[in-house]
Amino acid sequence: MTTTTSADSAELRVARRRSVRRSGPTVARPGFAWAAPATLFFLLFAVLPLILVAVLSFTSWDGLGAPQYAGLDNWKALVHDHTMIQSLWLSVLITVLGVAVQTPLSILLGVWAAGRQRNRAILSAIYFVPLLLSATAVSILWRALLDPNFGVPAQAKWLFGDGNLFGKQASAIGVLVFVGAWQYTPFHTLIYQGAARAIPQVLYQAAQIDGAGRFRQFWHITLPQLRNTMITSMILMVVGGLTTFDTVLILTQGGPGTDTTISAYYMYEQAFKSFDFGGGSAIALVLVLAATIISLIVVKVSGYDKMRSSSEGL
């Protein structure tokens, strides 16, 4: 009589799994033809324009005639441009504030909206209305509501002081962060709502048996399960925050002075107001590089790059 060791039993289990996989239906990996339309679209509308912008950043061009090669002149000018350096700092500041405000709100609202009650569905549908509006329409709406002469601040000076929220840097930045959160928090809430509904209910049932309350369930079950969703949402916030343009254009026009001139708006001023498309292209490329580097840092620090799908390889 022979005795089966633990190593032998492990090999038997692996062999059984392989036999089950071989006997089951095989799933063929989709061919390249399925990805060809999306790949072509990405190359034409993302990669090619980025290459053209990179080429223009080494030229001097006012929009008329042929671009003239200028070497590194545009890049040297950016290094010594105080407004450019300030615009990068403002872009990062507004992005960080946006992430700090939108992330906790989106998580709480998303987890709440994941409930199955009818009243939650109705309130969620109403709450998602700002997501259907364009950024331009939202900016015009809040510009009218916050007008220092006829808007809400003018009628409630006991709360808003002189009523001119666009006259100081701190309040102007606060308006930009608030308007961005008002419009885009529903989008991230929708992401968290789907992720919260995908959490296995057996985890909460086991926690209830162990006597865990709602707060402990949220802190020890919900938040860890939403980790990857949180990282995805934050990356979207970072990219969206660094490329914000229309909100600044309509609400503050970069003012007061240059106190809210973020990099995307400064690029617009250089290219379409000063007709320096070479300098504007250099700013655009810096913005792309900054967004890419920050996103990669978030992915690396969070460990998101090590996430694996249970269906990977199909």
Automatic annotation (TrEMBL):
Report keywords, A-Z: Cell membrane, Membrane, Transmembrane, Transmembrane helix, Transport
InterPro entries from the UniProt entry: ABC_transporter_permease, MetI-like, MetI-like_sf
Instruction: Provide a GO CC annotation, any one.
Output: plasma membrane
Q: Where are the transmembrane segments?
A: 31-58, 88-113, 125-145, 165-184, 230-251, 277-299
User: SUPFAM superfamilies, from UniProt?
Assistant: MetI-like (SSF161098)
Gene3D superfamilies noted in UniProt: MetI-like (1.10.3720.10)
Subcellular location(s) of the protein? Cell membrane
A Pfam family assignment: BPD_transp_1
Kindly list the biological process annotations in GO that this record carries: transmembrane transport
Q: Where is the ABC transmembrane type-1 domain?
A: 88-298
Q: How does it sit in the membrane?
A: Multi-pass membrane protein
In the record, the note on similarity to other proteins reads: Belongs to the binding-protein-dependent transport system permease family.
Annotated PANTHER family: ABC TRANSPORTER PERMEASE PROTEIN, INNER MEMBRANE ABC TRANSPORTER PERMEASE PROTEIN YCJO
| Protein name in UniProt | Xylobiose ABC transporter membrane protein
Query: Which source organism?
Result: Actinacidiphila rubida
